Amino acid sequence: MTTKSILESFTQKGILPEEQAVLITEYERTKSFSIHRELRAILYLGITLLTTGLGILIYKNIDTIGHQAIIALIAASIIACFYHLFKNRQPFSRGMVINTDQFSEYILILACTLFLTLEGYLQYQYQFFGTRYGIAIFIPTVLFFFLAYRFDNKAVLSMGITGLASWLGLTISPLSVLEKNDFTAPGIIITGIVLGIALVVISWLSEKNDIKSHFGFTYMLLGGNLAAISGLAGLFNNDPKIIYFLITAALCTFLIQNARKTQSLIFLLMGVIYGYIAVTYAAFVFLPDSVLAALSIFYFLFTSLGVLFFLLNVKKILGLKK
Questions:
Q1: Which residues cross the membrane (predicted)?
Q2: What whole-number distance in Å separates Cα of residue 86 and Cα of residue 290?
Q3: pLDDT at 242 over 70
């Protein structure tokens, strides 16, 4: 049904006065339509197409263009981007910065992408860093963290956190954290737990000290997932299991408390789901067989009821108004 037909129906039934219906119709006809998200998507797509197109152009004409010319072109583009950014920069603030230049965010992402391209090209063609791959990852990581805080950009912050994880030998992307990390290796598990908890602590400190507190969500999301998955992997594969269980349980408790404080559904789900997995596995590992025989009959029944109770009362748990 269209807005016009709904209004006509309300008018005929006497629910809405005709004058009100006319005003609503006129408002719907003349109101502004925001294309902000569409423009953002087009700009992001433009950056991707630009970098991809330049890469294909360079690849197909490498013999005629020359490596030095390509490096000079990429370097000049990076310098031009940073010149624009620092020329139009806003004063640094501990809080959120409202940037009046709408294109600076995309230029910053383009500059970071080009920097990675330049670094990768130098390493591939000239072995610029030799076998010291850690330095090749560490340099853009430090740069991205600096740029993220200086220009108040969450996307670049995510790139910095991803670089830090890569420097430590981890993949931290939510879509590939399970697929591309070898969680059977104790070193990877411990590294994941330490890095994840460190990111969670940074999130907590950012909000407590009001230093880019809006970055806390990014730190908490990436760090919480990494630490919880690493803790569960340690619980499943390594000993002593009780240590990994306590770490995971403490982290899930913190996530739930933080979710209630910030009224965040995603952190509440993280805490509940990871906590449920840890408690279920621990119950069937730590408890004696005599208890398990009785527990296995009722455990999943009661937990199913618990899930139902959780879904019905999630707003109350988060402290949201109905």
A1: 41-59, 65-86, 106-124, 130-149, 156-177, 183-205, 217-236, 242-259, 266-287, 293-312
A2: 69
A3: yes
Cβ proximity of 318 and 260 under 8 Å? yes
Please tell me the predicted confidence (pLDDT) of residue 183.
Answer: 60
User: Which pLDDT score, from 0 to 100, does residue 192 have?
Assistant: 87
CB contact at 8 A, 261 and 233:
no
The span from the CA of 163 to the CA of 171, in Å, is: 9
User: Using an 8 Å Cβ cutoff, are 256 and 272 in contact?
Assistant: yes
> Do 203 and 216 meet the contact criterion of CB atoms below 8 Å apart?
yes
User: pTM higher than 0.85, yes or no?
Assistant: no
Tokens of 199: 């990111």
State the Cα–Cα distance between residues 82 and 125, nearest whole angstrom.
Answer: 25
- DSSP state string for 243-308: HHHHHHHHHHHHHHHHHHHHT-HHHHHHHHHHHHHHHHHHHHHHS-HHHHHHHHHHHHHHHHHHHH
Note whether 247 and 193 are within 8 A (CB).
Answer: yes
pLDDT at 293 over 90: no
**Position 249 confidence tier, pLDDT thresholds 50, 70, 90:** very high
What distance in Å separates the CA atoms of residue 202 and residue 193, rounded to the nearest whole number?
14
Spell out where the chain has E strands.
Answer: none
Q: Is the pLDDT higher at 303 or at 178?
A: 303
Instruction: List the domain boundaries for the chain.
Output: 41-58+68-167, 185-322
Residues 6+ apart with CB under 8 A from 202: 219, 223
Cβ partners under 8 Å of residue 315, min gap 6: 321, 322
